[in-house]
Structures are given as structure tokens and as C-alpha cells.
Amino acid sequence: MQIETLFDPATSTLTYIVFDPKSRDAVVIDPVLDYDPLASSTSTRSLETLEALLRKHDLRVHYILETHAHADHISGSQYLKKRFGAKVGIGARIRDVQKLFRDVFDLPAAFAIDGSQFDRLFDDGEKIVAGTLELEVMATPGHTPACVTYKIEDAIFAGDAIFIEDSGTGRCDFPAGSAEDLYTSIHERLYELPDATRVFVGHDYQPDGRPLRSETTIGAEKEKNIQLRASTTREEFVKMRTARDATLAAPRLLYPSVQVNVDAGLLPRPHANGRRYLSVPLNLKQITDNDGTPA
């Protein structure tokens, strides 16, 4: 197994190409469609770089795997699906996330909340065959209900569940997020894997300006993770995570990202004028009058 890593500095997102160099069978994990929120415009610059790597290695892409419905970048899955004929897969609990956000964005009744926009919905423990690659799905909810980790040989791709040990874990304050669930996912599932298991994270925020890192190990996480070590109790973690999340601002691309990503990376359907529009809820946590005062 060989792994190519791409980094998007605008969103601190790590994308992975995992492939068998002999058979050229491959999967792509968490690709990024560039989005400029000021101009409200998309760009395929990052995806073109990714595509060039796939073609350089002459890879046969079987799946585009999403670890969850991202709140910090728009998925580039549809670009790759169109060009490589790959299937888009995500955890089966995406249905729960779709139900939540259909109301938040006032999506039309025709918006499917059964996950049918995706080609595959993965259950916990499910095995995926991608040519000569074999993957196992591990449900790791907490950051969102639908988060999954993909295990391939001696490596896991954990999305936003856990980061490099000096960055801690994913936040749990999104709708239906749960610090209790995240503790279980990490401490009672991921930390049960062998210490030598390689951990590939979904983001690296490079604290204190340190060089980019995408990889650590279960052993290092258990010993050094600043928020959740093997010795950390459930009560300690839930208290810390809840207090910290209360201080965090919403992700910069929260609303554009989620409404696209719950729809399998499909951009909003064009209006009658041919243009596509994103929906941004105003004062989501406080209903207001038309002059901005609380209703």
C-alpha cells in the first residue's frame, strides 16, 4: 500500500490517495473543492492537482470515501466521480445529518434524507473491497453522528475524530455532536488498536507554526494527545471538550460546506435563471424581527 497526501492550506484539510502500486487500484479520502466565500465562487485548482497525481500513477479509483459531512470545506467527490467513474461512499448515519440540516437550510421536501445521493452507505464493521485493496469501516461518531474511520492494513484514516497529538480531538458542538460519543469512539475503539497503527488525520492546524504533519500512531496518541490520553477519564474529557467548544467560533465555511456535503457534494440545483445559490440562515440561534431585534 502506498499513500499520497495533499494539503489544502485554506482549510487545513488533508486529502489522501491510497493505492496498490502493483495493481494500481486506489481510493481517495476527503477531496476538496476550492471555495472563495468573499466571491462566492468555486475553483477546481486543488482537484486538478489531485487528478494529475492519480493520472501520474495511472490509478483505477474505485471509491471516493468521505469520513463525514464536512463543515469546513466543500467536497470534491463529484468532480472525481465524473472523471474516474468512482463511487462516493460515506457512513450510513449520514441520514441523521441530512434530517437535521434539511430543517436548518429549509431544503425542499424533495431533498432526500435516505442517503440516496451517495453511491454507498457504510455500516460499522463493513468490509469494502476496492480491487486489491481491502478496507474496514469503523463508526467513530462524536464530532458528527455520521463520522467513520477507514482502516486499511496497518493504517487508519480518522477524519476529524482525532488530530495530531499536539492538536487534540475534533469539536463536538455541531448539531447531534457528542463529547460522550467521541470519548467512546477514541478511547474504547481507536485506542484498542495496536500501538503501531498509523493514524492519518483529516486536518493539521500546525500549532505554534510547526511543520505540517499528517501522520502519527495510536501509541503516540495514547501517551501524548493533549486532550485525550489513555489515562484520561470520560468525565475529564467531556468536561474539557464541552468547555472548549463553548469558546469556539463557527467554522468559516460552515454553511456552504454542510449544505453541499449532505447532498453528496452536489452543488445546489440551478434556479430558473440558470444560476446556483447557496442558502445562509440568518441569526440561526435567535429568531429576530426584520430590524434585527429579538422577535
UniProtKB/TrEMBL annotation:
Keywords (A to Z) from UniProt: Hydrolase, Metal-binding
Hydrolase keyword on record: yes
Domain Metallo-beta-lactamase: 12-203
Protein name, entry field: Zn-dependent hydrolase, including glyoxylase
Superkingdom, natural source: Bacteria
CDD domains, per database record: POD-like_MBL-fold
GO BP annotations listed: glutathione metabolic process; hydrogen sulfide metabolic process
Pfam families assigned: Lactamase_B (PF00753)
GO MF terms held by the record: hydrolase activity; metal ion binding; sulfur dioxygenase activity
SUPFAM superfamilies hit by this protein: Metallo-hydrolase/oxidoreductase
